[in-house]
Amino acid sequence: TPGIVVAGAGQAGFQLAASLREGGFRDPITLVGDETALPYQRPPLSKAYLAGKTDAEGLFLRQPGFFAEHAITHRPGIRAVAIDRAGRSLQLSDGQSLAYDHLVLATGARNRPLPVPGADFPNVQQLRGLADADALRAALGEAKAIVVVGAGFIGLEFAAVAAARGLSVTVVESADRPMARAVSPEIGQFFRAAHEAMGVHFAFGAGVTAITGRAGRATGIVLADGRELPADFILIGIGVLPNRELAAEAGLPAEDGVRVDAFLATPDPAISAIGDCVRFPSPFAHGLTPDGTVRIESVQNAIDQGRCLAARLNGKPAAYGALPWFWSDQGPHKLQIAGLSGPGDASVVRGSGAAFSVFRFRDGALRAVESVDRAGDHMIARRLLAAGTPLTPEQAADPGFDLKALAM
Ligand code: FAD
Fold this sequence. Notes:
FAD/NAD(P)-binding domain, 26 strands, binds flavin-adenine dinucleotide
């Protein structure tokens, strides 16, 4: 029997393989990944690894021996290029094909390109993988003036590391505040001030029209209002696109992510999908999207979907209903988010100054909690949201109200 073949050997694909074996799965498991390294975690690439505080060894999800011990075949440096659904086989970039009983798409996401002239200069880069992080580490050693395009999580984490090195850093953002798509205005304002205190400059409401260069290298960035910012290194961090092409070309629904049902199954019973590449129905997306589906880019989601699918493939099916949670480290501050919030949610702030949480209410119910340096609130929020425990905005706002007791 050919067993399970996984396209993509990242956080989700690796977790699926490990959880399958943990649950007693005995058939072959093959992880096909186009990167050359052992499966590794990405979060440190824009944090400790970028800052030189940990080496590549520290990123690997398991040491090499793990794969042989658990009879998981890892095929690095190989790309899955097409699915033959009728023949149940996956075509690979080395010309071979792999038969499967069940195929799992865990292809993750790739960086959204910045469509302006000059974006292909060698000192204009993006960050997704280990190879990118190595290039950025080298660049940080040489650059003096850095421009970051995009005030999202990765752009801001990179900016914090660069600023801590004493480099001049300007973050250019089309919205009017940092992380505008992901967090409340309160959190955005806090991080704006925190970055400014680290020496980071911002240009908000700023579109980029071109990257200028000389002698084959970028020298600056031109904004829509005509301003030109000099730069000897530019990081583009404007979000990601799901790697949905394998599914789409095989005739599976894959608009803005590979479409799966609550069990992470595609309409083809022999194909499932997990992680950053999927769009799935979430019980936490209430009132957030027209059809109740979301695409989530987080370690939590990749791991929990890997576990959920492994359980189904081991004969214990359950709908995916794990609470979304996320973190971001920016300079001295830790942001933690539990639940899913939307731009229209009402905010209630608990705590003050440098350590506080923003409770986000939508349609009368608590939907998300964003905490800055308040790990206790975050853990309580995860319990409340996962259990669906009712909390009113008045209770959240009352510093005397015992949230911990409510969560017990
Ligand atoms: P990935 O880990 O991206 O794995 C997908 C793999 O599939 C990749 O190796 C890709 O190259 C490969 N692949 C794609 N197409 C093919 C193909 N056709 N054939 C073979 N292989 C293919 N999340 C958090 O929760 N907290 C954080 O602080 C955080 N920080 C991050 C920092 C950075 C710099 C980045 C890039 C991401 C961060 N994330 C963070 C997000 C998190 O890493 C992702 O959500 C997670 O890795 C998703 O797992 P995945 O397996 O779906 O995708």
